[in-house]
What does this fold into?
Amino acid sequence: MLDGLKGEDSIAELCRREGIAQSLYYSWSKEFLEAGKKRLAGDTARAASTSEVKDLRREAQELKEVVAEQTLELRLLKKSMLGDGGDQE
It folds into this structure.
């Protein structure tokens, strides 16, 4: 990647020497330059790892379950306070 940016050899020669397709080189080059632009712009956020994503999904599910339980408890409490069991909100 860096050798290609230096411009000492042609991209075709560099790819032949390294045994990669030119399309792969250009794909890597684009990713490299985009990451550099983001970093220079102050965007230091990184992609979450698979384990982080799994943990966050589990936590989100647990929070949804807590909200559902509390919503049910609140509805039951409202019904008991109304005394007639009607659903008057």
Q: What stands out?
A: The CA atoms of residues 53 and 59 lie 10 Å apart. The chain has a mean pLDDT of 85. Residues 50-82 form the longest helix (33 residues). Residues 48-82 form one domain.
